[in-house]
Amino acid sequence: MQRLLPLFLQLAAVGAKSSGAASEVLLSRPTKPPSARFYPPQEFLDCDGANFSSVWRGFRAEVAENQRKGFPPDRALYDRASTIVQEFSDGVLAASLKFPQVLVRQIPVTRLNGFCLFGFATALFLVFRHELSTDRLEAIGQTLGWVEWPLDFMESSAWPTLWRHVSLHLEEFQRRGDVSWSQELQHWGDDDALLPHPTVPEVEGALLAWLRAVGTGRGQQWLEGEAPGPMDLARRLGNRKRLRVLVLGHHLGSSMEPFSMLQAALNVGVGLEISAAFYGQRHPKPGLACQEFGYCDENPLLEDWFRRYESRWLGHYDWMPDGWDEALGKLSTVIGSGDFMSKGDLVVCGGPGWFCVMLRILWSVPMLLYFAWPITPLIPPGFKTHIFSYIRSLAQATDPPALIVTANWVLAAQFAQQVRMQVPVQRPHGIYVNQTYAPVAAPGGNQRVMVTRIGQWARVSGVALLELVWSYQEQAKKTNQPHPFELVFLSIKIRGTDTNAALKYADFAKFHACVFWPWDAMMLLFNELYTMTMPLVLPSRRWMQQLISHSLSHTEVNWWHLREAVGGGLPDPSGVPFPLPYQPWIQADDGLRAMSYWYQLTDFMQFPHLTYFDSLPEMMEKLRTLDVPTIRRGMRAYNRVTFRDSLAFYRRAAGELIG
Predict the structure, then answer these.
(1) What is the tens place of the pLDDT at every residue in 67-95?
(2) Given a cut of 90, is residue 123 above it in pLDDT?
(3) I need a surface site. Which of 23, 57, 258, 594 has the fewest CB within 10 A?
(4) What is the pLDDT of residue 218?
(5) Sorting pLDDT into bands at 50, 70 and 90, what band is 62?
(6) What would the mean pLDDT of 34-53 be, rounded to a whole number?
(7) What pLDDT, on the 0 to 100 scale, is given for residue 217?
(8) Are 499 and 489 in contact (CB under 8 A)?
(9) CA distance 376 to 421
(10) How far is 498 from 144, CA to CA, in rounded Å?
């Protein structure tokens, strides 16, 4: 692993710094050769070709037949698997260490000495199938490096994808302390059918019924009654000619989304001038509001305040329990200085939630609070109840109003459980992007396909993903079947390619399609690209569940919405149990079922007209056969319907905020 570290650091540094403006046609073609010569990637993964014994090919064929039947007991296959385990056990450690080096093309395939890592792991699985010996079960993950690597690439081979077959067996063994679950299982194989796949209506209905049962079933009062139409809103505006909106928050996307939708809702033909000032948005990059959208007001005092108090992304805000009053006092100084308060007839607060709470404590102003993040990330456990209490009180305020909206159903469930409130969910639209899909081909005519940042979540295995994809492309050229597209991996610096430049939305619009690897329950770039009608190609649901599992179990980063650290809630005297089968965050013993439940409710699964792949070869094939016109027509239709609904919602909010 030490030899792989420099490669990982090159990839993990993605997005840390801009190396300048993006070129007109961004590419990620490697210009320096790898250390190891080319070997056909499929032959390497399948253990075919000159470097592997025909023993592996024969074993794989027998396994495939057994898999088609659901892995029933087969004495002859068990004997063969047992022999393989016995004969090759001495070489498994060396092979496990060399395999990653072959994947990243640091050493040639010959260094494996004919050892087939996937074949050996499959033999362990078949021995477990017959003996139910847990040492064999645990050895599979050790052999394939599941702790170190979120990707093992077995799904891209002709061998069984063991993380689709083994994970639940491991979880149930660890939960029960025995193999009774495995013993009772009739049909072994792909476990997706054993995982929950909830629908939004059933989750929404269950939460609402539960809130009624605990005595807080009513939503915020402003949501009651009929939404005002454009003419009703125009009458409420009366003779008002100007509206000042102060947009505050730590993240540009979660600030721009509610503001741009509110701005669209107020466009009712009465000539209203909306002036906006954006303060505090230093994520994802300071100054972006000015560079991209022309909102160039600055407030150095608030920026300094954010740097002091909103300055970490791991652990807890250590200052909060004893320093809350001090922070509140300093924020009061910021608000009272200069023309701060004169900038806003109303405030849009894009988070974090505790900042919006502080703001409203100090300043009684009509406020729209937009939650794209959980209520209490990074809040010390002993201080969470204070924040939950403030949020609950804030949502009940009517004079002046404080309106709350969430960006996804994971957050809506967290609000229900933590503060016992029904809050509305509105999909992010990203209309502020204001870009039209206009792909620009690479030199030579191939369409460019953007691949979102992989170093953010894949670690060292991201280098292997790069090299495998490049090998598949090289193999296609060698067989005179080149792919009609060119993959552009964003934010990488490896083998002579450097795409670590800052991209603008206009640059994104120039891609033909996007391979999108999620690394949290919601990502605004996904919604922004969807609004552009950029065809989106994603890993399949079950693959994503495995990636989530690895992230939550073995790392401290990503999938922030679902981490147990965002948990907690107000005491509930009713004693009525929460109605959903899982808490709206992943607890230590929840496992794949909870991950499946909550991932199903994300936009990555709920939005229509998305394309999914189960392996890297399938990804390449799906991109080859992508029906772009049909996909984009469907996306446009979905955008129209959901935007109409969201516009009605924000008109209701605007009517309440302006009084």
Answers:
(1) 999 999 999 999 999 999 999 999 999 99
(2) yes
(3) 23
(4) 64
(5) very high
(6) 95
(7) 57
(8) yes
(9) 15
(10) 30
At 64, which amino acid appears? A
CATH class of the 200-433+644-658 domain in this structure: alpha beta
What is the tens place of the pLDDT at every residue in 315-347? 999 999 999 999 999 999 999 998 899 999 999
Reading phi first (left if > 0) and then psi (alpha if -120 to 50, else beta), residue 178 is in beta
| pTM confidence score | 0.94
Which pLDDT band, with edges at 50, 70 and 90, does 269 fall under?
confident
Handedness of CA 69, 70, 72, 76 (dihedral sign): positive
Query: Cα separations (Å) of 139 from 148, 387, 507, 577?
Result: 14, 45, 46, 39
Residue 224: pLDDT above 80? no
Own/partner pairs for 235-238, CB < 8 Å, 24+ apart?
A: 236/655, 236/658, 236/659, 237/266, 237/268, 237/270, 237/272, 237/658
d(CA 57, CA 13): 40
C-alpha to C-alpha distances, 578 to 126, 371, 590, 598, nearest whole angstrom: 40, 22, 15, 15
613: β partners: 539
CB 279 within 8 A of CB 300: no
Question: Region 38-62: what's the mean pLDDT?
Answer: 96
- Helices 252-265, 628-658: crossing angle, 10 deg rounding: 80
* Paired strand residues for 514: 450, 536
Sign of torsion, CA 651 654 656 659?
negative
516 and 536 in contact (C-beta within 8 Å)? yes
Strands 497-498 and 493-494: antiparallel
Among residues 530, 555, 521, the alpha carbon closest in space to that of 373 is found at: 521
Residue 298 to residues 278, 307, 619, Cα–Cα distance (Å): 8, 14, 44
Q: What is the dihedral of CA 315, 318, 321, 322, to 10 degrees?
A: 180
Nearest Cα to Cα of residue 414 among 216, 584, 214: 584
Cα 502 to the chain's mean position, in Å? Answer: 21
pLDDT tens digit string along 293-311?
999 999 999 999 999 999 8
Query: How far is the C-alpha of 350 from the C-alpha of 356, rounded, in Å?
Result: 8
Length of the chain: 659
| d(C-alpha 528, C-alpha 284), whole Å | 15
- Average confidence score pLDDT of the chain: 92
Enter the tokens of residue 319.
Answer: 């200052």
CA pair distance 404, 253, nearest whole angstrom: 17
